[in-house]
């Protein structure tokens, strides 16, 4: 009952005219920041951080959190409309969102993304409100061994339960892992796989560079090549009736949305995990749970609902360790943490005692931001649909320029622009040779996390591999991963042999 009273007080703070205006403005700004390739919530929050010194600390954090929320919604827009991930958190949305748009169902994909994001945001904020202290303790129980086991489970879902060709899936994963290892060794500092000492490879391969190259340039080349009679304008349509119909049909993807919400929130509360692994793992789990896994990657709405609910849930989840433990759960919350310290708010368990009005005002603002982000998103759907009605002869150069600018903006290094062009050709060839792209993207996202956690665990155990099996949390997770890795072999053994005729 005390929690409910504190939340009501928080709504009183969040609905003050200044704070409410900051929420609405932050959500609208975040929506367009998330939709712009190469920007994303991290850059958006960092760029706008100095503006917040004009308002009180509570309003400042509410504004930045609203930008974060809006960017999670906005990342799906360019993923669906152009096939270019607006941010790394929206890469998994591209897998099925783009095929839906090309099939003339862009409005369904956008509405599903907005609805699933709202569900993910709502579930995560409710969990945040009710179970903040115990969930923070669960996050602390996850050490290096548990994080590595979780990464292995993510890889295993693609290998064991994917409908793709297993050798090609494994090849795609290995390519992603090799690319994720480029740069400086995390322990010795020695350069590795830097291709003759090229300076640009010392900072590794930016994940967004790979994603924009494969899904932006590669998708554009594939679209041009696959249209023999000239590229036609996508027959995207819009009407109030269609919006209502698609909103009603959200119940069909409710299972995937709820699964993504809980999984995304759980991954989000793990320190340094963030929304990107959560969204990709949710996509893999949705494919696992689906009755028609072969339709994933070809325009299945559950393939949009699961990652979108997960990345919104993870964005809220990542705030939990920031507020309760002072440990940022994602790069964006690391910037928020820095802002809190500047304003004299010390994160940690005492924050809930010494600054109750700030904490509960922020939590209440997340409910408000979640609602307004969805409404603003739905209101702009006609404008988004208009993008697909643009002739491809105009759209293709725009996509090309956005890809190059999106790759150059984060690091301002021409090396990344050349990599985008190379990855674009590689993505096109992989599509042409029927190699799955999603496992490679998964590997380059989770590869650095898996390597770091594995090496930390082995250092803790003096090189004893049993640490991954003997610990009470990592053991069962690793066991599940092993079973999934072996599933293709079991299916092969159980497959009836065709008798050879004489």
Notes on the protein architecture:
The protein has 502 residues and is mainly alpha-helical. It has one domain (2-488). Helices cover 73% and strands 1% of the residues. The protein has 23 helices and two strands. The chain has helices at 2-14, 17-35, 40-48, 57-81, 91-102, 106-141, 144-161, 166-180, 207-226, 240-248, 254-269, 275-289, 302-317, 319-325, 331-342, 351-354, 356-379, 381-388, 392-411, 414-432, 438-460, 467-470, 474-494; strands at residues 183-184, 191-192. Helix 2 packs across helix 17, helix 3 runs parallel beside helix 15 and helix 9 (207-226) runs antiparallel to helix 19. The longest helix has 36 residues, at 106-141. The model is unreliable at 228-234 (pLDDT under 50).
Which structural traits does this protein have?
502 residues; two-stranded antiparallel ribbon; globular; mainly alpha; single chain
Q: H/E series, N to C?
A: HHHHHHHHEEHHHHHHHHHHHHHHH
- Averaging pLDDT over every residue, what do you get? 78
Whole-number count of domains: 1
Structural class: mainly alpha
* Rg calc: 22 Å
Query: How many E-type strands?
Result: 2
Strand order of the largest sheet: 1-2
Main beta sheet, described? 2 strands, antiparallel
Q: What is the helical fraction, as a range of percent? A: over 70%
Described by the principal axes of the CA atoms, the overall outline is globular
Task: Give me the number of helical elements.
Answer: 23
Distance between the termini: 79 Å
- Could you name the ranges where pLDDT drops below 50 across 5 or more consecutive residues? 228-234
- Our estimate of the beta-strand percent is under 5%
């Amino acid at each position: 009952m005390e929690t409910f009273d504190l939340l009501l007080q928080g709504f009183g703070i969040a609905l003050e005219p200044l704070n409410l205006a900051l929420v609405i403005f932050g959500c609208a700004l975040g929506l367009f920041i998330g939709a712009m390739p190469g920007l994303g919530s991290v850059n958006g929050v960092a760029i706008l951080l100095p503006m917040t010194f004009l308002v009180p600390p509570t309003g400042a954090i509410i504004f930045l959190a609203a930008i974060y929320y809006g960017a999670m919604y906005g990342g799906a827009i360019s993923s669906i409309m152009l096939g270019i991930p607006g941010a790394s958190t929206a890469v998994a949305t591209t897998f099925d969102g783009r095929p839906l748009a090309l099939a003339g169902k862009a409005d369904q994909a956008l509405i599903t993304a907005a609805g699933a994001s709202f569900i993910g945001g709502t579930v995560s904020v409710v969990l945040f409100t009710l179970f903040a202290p115990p969930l923070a303790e669960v996050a602390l129980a996850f050490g290096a061994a548990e994080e590595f086991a979780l990464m292995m489970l993510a890889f295993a879902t693609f290998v064991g339960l994917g409908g793709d060709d297993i050798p090609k899936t494994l090849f795609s994963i290995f390519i992603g892992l090799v690319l994720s290892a480029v740069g400086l060794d995390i322990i010795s500092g020695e350069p590795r796989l830097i291709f003759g000492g090229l300076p640009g490879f010392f900072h590794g391969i930016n994940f967004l560079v790979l994603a924009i190259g494969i899904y932006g340039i590669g998708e554009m080349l594939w679209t041009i090549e696959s249209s023999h009679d000239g590229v036609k304008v996508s027959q995207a349509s819009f009407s109030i009736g269609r919006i209502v119909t698609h909103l009603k049909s959200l119940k069909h993807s409710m299972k995937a949305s709820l699964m993504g919400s809980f999984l995304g929130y759980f991954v989000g509360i793990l320190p340094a995990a963030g929304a990107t692994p959560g969204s990709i793992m949710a996509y893999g789990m949705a494919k696992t749970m689906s009755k028609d896994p072969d339709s994933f990657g070809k325009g299945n709405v559950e393939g949009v609902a699961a990652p979108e609910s997960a990345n919104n849930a993870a964005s809220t989840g990542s705030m939990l360790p920031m507020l309760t433990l002072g440990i940022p759960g994602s790069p964006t919350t690391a910037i928020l943490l820095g802002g809190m310290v500047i304003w004299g708010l010390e994160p940690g368990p005492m924050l809930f005692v010494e600054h109750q009005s700030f904490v509960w005002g922020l939590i209440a603002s997340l409910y408000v931001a979640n609602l307004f982000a969805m409404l603003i998103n739905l209101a702009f759907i006609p404008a988004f649909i208009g993008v697909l009605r643009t002739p491809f002869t105009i759209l293709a150069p725009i996509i090309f320029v956005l890809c190059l600018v999106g790759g150059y903006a984060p690091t301002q290094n021409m090396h990344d622009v050349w990599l985008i062009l190379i990855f674009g050709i590689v993505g096109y060839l992989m599509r042409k040779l029927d190699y799955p792209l999603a496992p490679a993207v998964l590997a380059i996202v989770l590869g650095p996390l898996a390597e770091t956690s594995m090496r930390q665990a082995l250092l803790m155990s003096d090189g004893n591999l049993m640490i991954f099996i003997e610990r009470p949390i990592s053991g069962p997770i690793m066991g599940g991963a092993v079973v999934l890795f072996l599933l293709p072999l079991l299916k092969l053994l159980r497959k009836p042999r065709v008798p050879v005729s004489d």
